[in-house]
Amino acid sequence: MTDLADRPEEALAPRRKRSRHVALLLAGAAVLTLAGCEDDAVDAQAFPDLNSCIAAAQKDGLWFTEEDCRTQFAAAEQAHLETAPRYESQELCEQQHGQGACGADPAAGDPATAQQQGGGGFSFMPLLVGYMMGSMLSRGGGIFSQPMVRTPTGYSTPSGNQTFASNSGSGRVPATTFNRAPTTVGQPPMSRAQVAQRGGFGAGATARTATGGTRGLGG
C-alpha cells in the first residue's frame, strides 16, 4: 500500500488529519478484506457503531473528526433506510443476510408507501450493522459513507456489489464503493422467485447499481 499524495492542509478542518499510513489500524481491528482492484482506491475505515468511530477520532486523529463520525453516521442511517434491499418475508431476508440479521421495514408503516407496495403488504430488510467512511480529500472532495449490512459470510454495502470480511477496520477500497445504491422505498419487496432469479443478494447488483456496473472479488 502507498500513502496518499500530499496536498495543502490549510483548507481542511483544523482537527482533520490524513493518515500517514493507510494500513494504520485501530487497536484490535482487522484490515478490511477488499472486494475489488486497487485502481482508483481510497482510504476507508469501517465501524460497527457511532461510538467506536468517535473513540477512534479522539485517540488516533486520522483523516476524520468526531463531527465527521456523527454526520456520516446520520447519512448512513438515512441511506440504509432508503436503499437497503427489501423482502416479502423475514425468512427470505434471513436466508440472504443471516439468522437474526433482519427486521420489519420502518417505512412500511407509511400508508402511502404501503399502498405503493401493493395494498398494505409488509416487508423486511437487513439491519444496519455499521458504516464505512471513505476519504476523498486527496481528490478535492470530502468524506462519504455507506451503511453496512450482514451477509451469510460477512458484510456488504446495500447494493451488494462490495463485500467485506469485517465491519471494523481500515483499508483501501474502490471509490465506487461509495456510489449510492438505488432507492428501494416504495418499491414492491422482493419475492422468493425474484431472489432466486437474481441468484441471491448481490448477484443482481449490476441491475440495481446506479452506475450500471459492479466489481467482482479480486483484481
TrEMBL record:
<feature type="compositionally biased region" description="Polar residues">
    <location>
        <begin position="153"/>
        <end position="186"/>
    </location>
</feature>
<protein>
    <recommendedName>
        <fullName>DUF1190 domain-containing protein</fullName>
    </recommendedName>
</protein>
<feature type="region of interest" description="Disordered">
    <location>
        <begin position="153"/>
        <end position="219"/>
    </location>
</feature>
<dbReference type="InterPro" id="IPR009576">
    <property type="entry name" value="Biofilm_formation_YgiB"/>
</dbReference>
<dbReference type="Pfam" id="PF06693">
    <property type="entry name" value="DUF1190"/>
</dbReference>
